[in-house]
Amino acid sequence: MSRVAVIGAGLAGLVVAQGLVDRAQVRVFEKSRGYSGRMATRRRADYQFDHGAQFFTAKSGSFREFLEPWLAAGVVARWDARFVEIEDGCITSRRTWDDEYPHYTGVPGMNALGRALGETLDVALETRVASILGEPGDWLLQDENGTELGRFDWVVSAIPAAQAAALLPREFEHHAQVSARDMPGCYSLMLAFDQALDLAWDAALVKDPVISWISVDSSKPGRPGGYRLLVHASNRWAEANMELADDAVIAALIEPTAKTTGVDVGVAAHVGLHRWRYANPGPRTGEPALVDAPNRLAAIGDWCIRGRIEAAFHSGRGAAERILPLL
Ligand SMILES: Cc1cc2nc3c(=O)[nH]c(=O)nc-3n(C[C@H](O)[C@H](O)[C@H](O)COP(=O)(O)OP(=O)(O)OC[C@H]3O[C@@H](n4cnc5c(N)ncnc54)[C@H](O)[C@@H]3O)c2cc1C
Question: Closest ligand 1 atom, CA of 54?
């Protein structure tokens, strides 16, 4: 059986691994402690937040079909949020998400889907692949200490484009395309309150130079009690302020959050911040997975298509379809 290494246990990596596992010996390497990548959930003491992706939609039949068993198992659920758009503190549009165009989330946290998939696969967590040495058909992976992680016929990189460009051997046929891909950053501000706030919505798209999104994270299905807000910076502001100290970022995000909600959010019982260096790639046309058959290398991820969970699925699925006949 061919040996395949998949680098990254986000949705794209898990989907390609799942697609190849019946025909190859597949090992997934993930640098974090958990599965799911940017479909992220953070738990600290009494608080839980989805600090990466907020929800996802399923436009294609194949993604809807993929989701069916996870919906039936309660790993994924619909989030029928009261959704608004807000500008200068005023609500400019309002609707409730429903079955006409369903929005989904993982349960009890956004990372549930990745965890459920990951637990069926051979995944080495807390293992960062730092180098790919050797040659096609005999790639040698090492971690940052130079420890050997194994030899593989194929290597599939399922990590953000900039990191893939640094890791993949120069002979990778699509190296220039990977290097050219931009993934603007983002900040997530996490706020927990002792008492519920008086907001008439669950999710808000915010037109503001500094912030772009606020959700009542605790309003999602199957969440623990309490009242929690999750705020995203705009990509443009985050990119311009990526090196700012945490305290300064928090202060900068709290002000427009207070203006948008009309509430003194500075009274939060818990304030947390996460810096996403690579967050939301814009749309790209072309192959959903960059496969180099002679070199037995591939680069996949949402960034092959656009910064959406459904795109990560299609990139992983597309890679499996391309690689299967080559094994
Ligand atoms: C703030 C934010 C908000 C978002 N909001 C939404 C939204 O509302 N709806 C939506 O559809 N999408 C949203 N997205 C995008 C969505 O999260 C992504 O499209 C999707 O999760 C990408 O999956 P992926 O598998 O391509 O990559 P990732 O999820 O980034 O997975 C890559 C994995 O590789 C690991 N890794 C990296 N380098 C190495 C290495 N050297 N060795 C081992 N492991 C490594 C990482 O730890 C990570 O787990 C959002 C993203 C962010 C950051």
Answer: 8
**Predicted pLDDT of residue 46:** 82
Give, using CA atoms, the residue closest to atom 38 of ligand 1: 159
Tens digit of each residue's pLDDT (9 = 90 or more) over 150-178 = 999 999 999 999 999 999 999 999 999 99
Model pLDDT for residues 27-54, shown as the tens digit of each residue? 999 999 999 999 999 998 789 999 999 9
Quick check: CB of 54 below 6 Å from ligand 1?
yes
Residue spans of alpha helices (H) in the chain:
11-20, 61-72, 112-118, 161-167, 175-180, 235-240, 246-261, 309-323
Domain 55-109+184-276: assigned CATH number: 3.90.660.10
Ligand 1: residue of 38, 155, 183 to mutate (most ligand atoms within 8 A of CB) is 38
Q: Ligand 1 centre from 195 Cα, in Å?
A: 32
Alpha carbon nearest to ligand 1 atom 34, residue: 8
Q: Where are the alpha helices (DSSP H) in 192-245?
A: 235-240
Decide which of 3.30.565.10, 3.50.50.60, 3.20.20.30, 3.90.190.20 is the CATH code for 2-40+113-181+284-326.
3.50.50.60
